[in-house]
């Protein structure tokens, strides 16, 4: 049987009894098992139960003697694909094997379709949210930035008047300085949020040129110097390769790297260390930002790139930084991934092509949503969108 199946193009692994079959399954992961019900040691039905417990996706065809067809029926109830009574005609067995493989392929395609449907629905929902956000952001930026400018200007005027008054009691002066400082901090934060809203909703022109990623990382290290000092966290750059030149948009990458490093500093404990690793992976460049914070719960790992999702306390984050960063990297042909363990910190890894194949125009959100709708309609009508 083994020889004849190999001649038909099948790759065959043999086992003499049940426990050996289970070891083979664990090591080589074949798709289909054909086995006798009566075997020395562990019998076929016991082996079938163990296979279905540990490898429920595997299909099993049982071979049984004419006098023990009840074992075959018991096997079907236990999850076997089918059973064949001996003597088995080879072509009949071959037909059952092909049917089992067709079932395996069909289940795989259904899983692909389900995953694709979920992915497309998420993309459609995000596209619709971003489209609505684009309309909202322009109005928000105009309506909020104007009063913010007036508040900021008025704060400066009050500070000047206060400095000219030498007769103010010291207690009043300290109280006013604290209040004005809070106003300035809040104005700065509100301005930053409106800027991030526009960055998320509007795609700014991409300017591709050659630059050194290590120099950009060093520049970001200087920019976060004050933040590091206040948080009492250090930032170090670990350059794995001397070749760190890349063709991309340095201004937009600076924004991404700055977002990731600031997030890492804020996530780190006092006295912690943030490591920025640079490496050359042939046709790709990698930079990773690792912190020594509390880590991200598993249930939040898929949500952290969604707009407005934040695990920080209200007032400490807008929930836009990672979403903006991911969008920028996707436009530049890169990707952003995260690994995290509770109590051990998180690592955000950016992978970029050394020379990205940029599209002439950024993908239009409306066109993306329409394309997703067409694919979902194909799924609903029974067509394969792949």
Describe the SSE topology.
Blueprint: H1 2-7, H2 18-28, E1 32-36, H3 44-54, E2 59-64, H4 69-77, E3 82-85, H5 90-164, H6 170-201, E4 209-212, H7 213-223, H8 225-231, E5 234-239, E6 245-248, H9 250-267, E7 273-281, E8 284-290, H10 321-331, E9 335-341, E10 345-353, H11 365-380
Parallel strand pairs: 1-2, 2-3, 5-7
Antiparallel strand pairs: 4-6, 7-8, 8-10, 9-10
Helix pairs in contact: 2-3, 5-6, 5-11, 7-9, 9-10
EC number: 2.7.13.3
Protein name: histidine kinase
GO molecular function: phosphorelay sensor kinase activity
What would you say this structure looks like, in words?
The structure is a single chain. With 386 residues, the protein is of the alpha/beta class. The chain folds into three domains: 2-88, Response regulator (Rossmann fold, 3-Layer(aba) Sandwich); 120-201, Orthogonal Bundle (Helix Hairpins), CATH 1.10.287; 209-361, Heat Shock Protein 90, CATH 3.30.565. Helices cover 54% and strands 16% of the residues. The chain has eleven helices and ten strands. Helix 4 (69-77) links the parallel strand 2 (59-64) and strand 3.
């Amino acid at each position: 049987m083994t020889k004849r199946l190999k001649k038909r193009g099948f790759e065959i692994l043999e086992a003499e009894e049940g426990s050996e079959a289970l070891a083979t399954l664990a090591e080589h992961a074949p798709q289909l098992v054909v086995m006798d019900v009566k075997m020395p040691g562990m019998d076929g039905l016991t082996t079938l139960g163990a296979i279905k417990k540990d490898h429920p996706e595997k299909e099993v065809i049982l071979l049984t003697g004419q006098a023990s067809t009840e074992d075959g029926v018991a096997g079907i109830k236990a999850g076997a694909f089918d059973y064949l009574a001996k003597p088995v005609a080879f072509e009949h067995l071959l037909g059952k094997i092909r049917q089992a493989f067709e079932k395996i392929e069909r289940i795989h395609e259904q899983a692909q379709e389900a995953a694709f449907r979920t992915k497309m629905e998420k993309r459609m929902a995000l596209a619709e949210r971003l489209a609505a956000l684009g309309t909202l952001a322009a109005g928000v930026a105009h309506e909020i930035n104007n009063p913010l400018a007036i508040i900021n200007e008025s704060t400066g005027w009050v500070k000047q008047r206060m400095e000219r008054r030498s007769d103010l009691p010291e207690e009043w002066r300290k109280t006013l300085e604290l209040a004005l400082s809070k106003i300035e901090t809040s104005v700065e934060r509100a301005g930053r949020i409106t800027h991030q809203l526009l960055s998320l909703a509007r795609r700014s022109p991409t300017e591709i040129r050659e630059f050194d990623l290590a120099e950009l990382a060093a520049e970001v290290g200087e920019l976060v110097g004050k933040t590091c000092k206040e948080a009492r966290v250090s930032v170090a750059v670990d350059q794995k390769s001397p070749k760190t030149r890349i063709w991309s948009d340095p201004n937009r990458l600076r924004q991404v790297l700055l977002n990731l490093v600031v997030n890492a500093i804020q996530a780190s404990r006092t006295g912690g260390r943030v490591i920025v690793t640079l490496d050359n992976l042939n046709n790709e460049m990698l930079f990773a930002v690792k912190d020594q914070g509390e880590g991200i719960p598993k249930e939040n790992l898929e949500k952290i790139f969604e707009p407005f999702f934040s695990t920080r306390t209200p007032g400490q984050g807008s929930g836009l930084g990672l979403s903006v960063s991911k969008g920028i990297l996707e436009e530049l042909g890169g990707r952003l991934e995260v690994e995290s363990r509770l109590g051990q910190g998180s690592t955000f890894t950016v992978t970029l092509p050394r020379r990205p194949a940029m599209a002439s125009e950024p993908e239009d959100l409306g066109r993306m949503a329409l394309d997703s709708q067409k694919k979902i309609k194909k799924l609903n009508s029974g067509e394969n969108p792949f």
